TrEMBL record:
Gene Ontology molecular functions: hydrolase activity; metal ion binding
Keywords: Hydrolase, Manganese, Metal-binding
Protein name, UniProt field: Amidohydrolase
Taxonomic lineage: Bacteria, Bacillati, Bacillota, Erysipelotrichia, Erysipelotrichales
InterPro entries per the UniProt record, alphabetical: Amidohydrolase, Bact_exopeptidase_dim_dom, Peptidase_M20, Peptidase_M20_dimer
Cofactor note as given: The Mn(2+) ion enhances activity.
Protein family per UniProt: Belongs to the peptidase M20 family.
Alphabetical list of NCBIfam families matching this protein: amidohydrolases
PANTHER family tied to this protein: METALLOPEPTIDASE, PUTATIVE (AFU_ORTHOLOGUE AFUA_6G09600)-RELATED (PTHR11014:SF63), PEPTIDASE M20 FAMILY MEMBER (PTHR11014)
Length: 396
């Protein structure tokens, strides 16, 4: 495309501003639903650029860049919230808030999207349609993306496609990684309460031991993964909490279990939830106990649209070169609430690498998570190119 050089130049020109915004956000991390300072910084930049905006989900912002030509609408997303972690990185712009830290790169996602705003705002003559900039709160908790969708971000004008990215500590600095199909899992949770009959530990025959039943449930649940689930569809059932009794010579009345079911496919997700509940009810009935089972669905799996991902893959190769863009082989059973966006419209979510030789691998959600913010030149350019190319290739 003949505007690629313009994007390159603007990404380089605005890199110092992006880094300044990133470092301000890093110094002032805000947890989910508390992103008021972050929101204010976003509004200040959009206002300086004369980009109209609206507030959604209380602390979220959506800006809209209207091109000089009519056309479709693309959404670009950056999440904004930090984590309840005490930073241990010795940098000049380390967190100034005790117990809070940008340990997942969302400061970079936000600053990079501000860079996209700067780039595209200067290129309205090349835009055939509209670009919505989704500055999203609360990715780390209850899914701010869903709230913004419920409050109308996909409408007026209707969004036709969406793109988003994540900084990847496993990937070489500047490299881009595309994943077709499922990319992140559904992080559902469950709680189980087993009601038995307690008694003296010396007379177990007079009791209905809920701990013994709990062990049977834990063991039986693993057979769902190895003998009943489709082996070509990855999933994990992890029991992460078990509580029962206090006395060492007393079998308790009740035992509580909790954990997570991680899946990549909607059919596997429902199958495992139903089957785990069936195991709980059956084993408790066989042992004369009763049970309650609560399944708590969370984010859906993030599944990239094949056609949109093929488009993104090719356009990113066109811009960055074939050696810089690779295809991710395996999905992750971690979670990402861009999944709600991907359910609403054809979407592609991808990784941009931040690992540098001679440095420790940046581990997300770790107090020593750190990265070189020169990468914002790549993140901003990649999103800008995808928006421009999509709208150009889908002219009305």
């Amino acid at each position: 495309m003949n505007y690629y050089e313009t994007v390159r130049n603007l990404a380089v020109t605005h890199l110092p501003e992006m880094k300044r915004h990133r470092r301000y956000l890093h110094e002032n991390p805000e947890l989910a639903h508390e992103e008021f300072l972050t929101q204010q910084r976003v509004i200040e930049v959009l206002t300086e650029l004369n980009i109209p905006y609206t507030i959604l989900a209380e602390t979220g912002v959506v800006g809209i860049i209207q091109g000089s030509h009519p056309g479709k609408t693309v959404l670009l997303r950056g999440d904004m919230d930090a984590l309840p972690i005490q930073e241990e990185v010795d940098i000049p712009f380390r967190s100034q808030i005790d117990g809070k830290m940008h340990a997942c790169g969302h400061d970079g996602h936000t600053a990079g999207l501000l860079g996209v705003a700067m780039i595209l705002n200067a290129m309205k003559d090349e835009i055939h349609g509209n670009v919505k900039l989704m500055f999203q709160p609360a990715e780390e908790t209850d899914g701010g993306a869903q709230t913004m969708i419920e409050e109308g971000i996909m409408d007026n004008p209707k969004v036709d496609a969406a793109f988003g990215l994540h900084l990847g500590g496993h990937l070489e600095h500047g490299k881009i990684e595309i994943k077709y199909g499922p990319m992140f899992g559904a992080p559902d949770e469950f709680e189980i309460r087993i009601q038995g009959r307690g008694g003296h530990a010396a007379s177990p025959e007079q009791t209905i031991d809920p701990i013994m039943i709990a062990t049977q449930i834990i063991q039986s649940a693993q057979t769902l993964l190895t003998r009943q689930k489709d082996p070509m569809k990855p999933a994990v059932i992890s029991f992460t909490s078990i509580h029962a009794g206090e006395g060492l010579n007393v079998i308790p009345d009740t035992c509580y279990l909790g954990g997570t079911i991680r899946t990549l496919y909607p059919d596997t997700r429902q199958f495992l939830a139903d089957k785990l509940q069936e195991i709980v009810n059956t084993l408790c009935e066989l042992n004369g106990a009763s049970a309650s089972f609560e399944f708590m669905p969370s984010y859906p799996p993030l599944i990239n649209d094949d056609a949109t991902t093929r488009f993104a893959h090719q356009q990113l190769i066109n811009y960055f070169g074939e050696n810089q863009v690779s295809e991710k082989e395996f999905a992750s059973l971690g979670a990402e609430d861009f999944a709600y966006v991907a359910l609403a419209v054809p979407s592609c979510y991808y990784n941009v690498g931040i690992f540098e030789d001679g440095h420790d691998e940046p581990v997300h959600h770790h107090p020593k998570f750190a990265w070189n913010d020169d990468i914002l030149e790549t993140t901003s350019a990649s999103l800008a190119i995808l928006a421009l190319d999509y709208l150009s290739l889908h002219k009305i």
